Amino acid sequence: MRIALLGGTGDVGEGLALRLGRDTDHELVIGSRDPGKARRCAEDYLERIGGFAESATVEGDSNRAATEGADIVVLAVPPEHVVDTIEAVSGALDEETIVVSPAVKMSRDDDGFHYERAEAEKSITAAAAEAVPANVPVVGTFHNLPAKRLAALDTELGLDAAIVADDEAAAETVAAVIADVEGLRAVYAGPISNAVEVESITPLLINLAVKNDGMHDVGVRFT
Amino acid sequence: MRIALLGGTGDVGEGLALRLGRDTDHELVIGSRDPGKARRCAEDYLERIGGFAESATVEGDSNRAATEGADIVVLAVPPEHVVDTIEAVSGALDEETIVVSPAVKMSRDDDGFHYERAEAEKSITAAAAEAVPANVPVVGTFHNLPAKRLAALDTELGLDAAIVADDEAAAETVAAVIADVEGLRAVYAGPISNAVEVESITPLLINLAVKNDGMHDVGVRFT
To answer: Among B80, B88, B150, B214, which is most buried by a count of CB atoms within 10 Å?
Structure first.
């Protein structure tokens, strides 16, 4: 499959590109508003994966061009850019494209990080599902993965990626991609209306990392 | 220490009583609105712990009497009874008593379980903290523990109990109790304003247990 990582020059995109590039044989395309930056990132990722998986394919392009022909499009952008990124690429999305939403909206004060819902009390995953063209399936996942640890390819994961989706076939396709990544397990948390509880874990993970000695870049395991 | 488990005849109280009774040397008091039921439960728990820890102490009494002289008072009651239980026992609470809030408010529909905040968008832990008399420290924890698994004493846990508290000394006291339970680890998630993200995990755990083969009575590990 061809997997586009929009905003793939950021932390989450970097981590996902390196792990997917090393552990799966999917073609990866890094998307960015700046195609030159996307191409430079793709070269960098490919070099870092190289020692592990010589056959890896990582290209770079504009978000819109990266979306063309992609089977899975990951919105690895900050939460405030999820909807405008979808709008910028929507002409290249159809019902055969699975859109993946990993973004989480958070606020921060002296006590720590706090989960914030998007407009109208929705999760970001639900906001993405409303913004895509009709019949384009949206899958929420990767919310709770520590980006730096993904990017450190010599680090073991042993983590869960909870999936929310209204389209079960799309959930299964994404779960199969996740299962190919060493140390990641996909678990199904139900429809997109259950995304709030998945997204909420992300600020908690940051709070735990800040407030406990020896906990940094933590993820979650349901056990 | 003397630990009162108010509403301790329910699932959460049962699991906590059995684990604390087996693994620690604290005196336990089961509280209930019905003192006779509390005493029968205490006898049952003591019998079940017996084979593991002969020295265990488990008594039963009314919620109010159980609170008298307790160092830690756990509100193991349904979320809708947290505030009225505090009111019923508040005469026996002072700044030396630590009140522990494990309750989570949830709704349920065809999609699964959903986290609900208490009144005024607060967590149940925050609602408990507002309901106790001035200077009584409140600690939120035990939210994400699977009650049935706690009660099955031959089952290993390997789980985390996230703690939220504004009073760090109280948090440390409760963390030390948790650390004595085999297979439980206490992690600090910050002040009570961070309780929402901890409580939110509970409906997610139920959704995961319902929707994934082989996952039942799951808890969480931050790793």
So the answer is: B150
Q: Which residues in A lie closer than 8 A to residue B183 (C-beta atoms)? A: none
Cβ neighbours, 10 Å, residue A107: 10
Cβ–Cβ gap B204/A212 under 8 Å = no
Cα(B122)–Cα(B135) distance, integer angstroms: 19
Closest residue in A to B156 (Cα) is A223
Instruction: Please name the residue that has the structure tokens 């933590």.
Output: A218
If residue B148 lies in a helix (H) or strand (E), which one and from where to where? helix B147-151
Q: What is the ipTM of this complex?
A: 0.96
In A, which residues are within 8 Å of B207 by CB distance?
189-190, 194, 197
Name the strand (E) or helix (H) holding A173: helix A168-179
Contact B223 A220 (CB under 8 A): yes
Averages of pLDDT over runs of 10 residues in chain A (223 residues) are: 97 98 97 98 95 87 98 98 98 98 98 94 97 98 98 97 98 98 98 98 98 96 97
CA distances from A196 to A73, A128, B9, B202 (A): 21, 13, 32, 12
Spatial strand order in the sheet of B184-188: B57-62, B27-32, B2-6, B72-75, B98-101, B138-140, B159-165, B184-188
pLDDT tens per residue, range A156-213: 999 999 999 999 999 999 999 999 999 999 999 999 999 999 999 999 999 999 999 9
Residue positions counted in chain B? 223
Are A44 and A174 in contact by the 8 Å Cβ rule? The answer is: no
Per the structure block, which two tokens stand in for B65? 């009497």
Q: Mark yes or no for CB contact B222/A203 under 8 Å.
A: no
Tell me if B215 and A189 make a contact (CB, 8 A cut-off).
no
Q: Scanning every residue of chain A, which has its alpha carbon at the shortest distance from the alpha carbon of B157? A: A223
Q: Do A221 and B219 touch (CB under 8 A)?
A: no
Residue A23 pairs in a beta bridge with: none
Q: What SS3 class is residue A112?
A: strand
Q: Which domains does chain B have, with CATH numbers?
A: 2-211 (3.40.50.720)
Tell me the C-alpha distance between B223 and B206, whole Å.
Answer: 20
| Torsion angle of the four alpha carbons B169, B170, B174, B176, in this order, in degrees rounded to the nearest 10 | 20
C-alpha distances (whole Å) from B175 to each of A42, A199, A222, B153, B179 are 46, 26, 21, 21, 6
Give me the residue from A115, A191, A208 closest to B189, CB to CB.
A208
Task: Compare all CA atoms of chain B with the CA of A199 and give the residue at the minimum distance.
Answer: B197
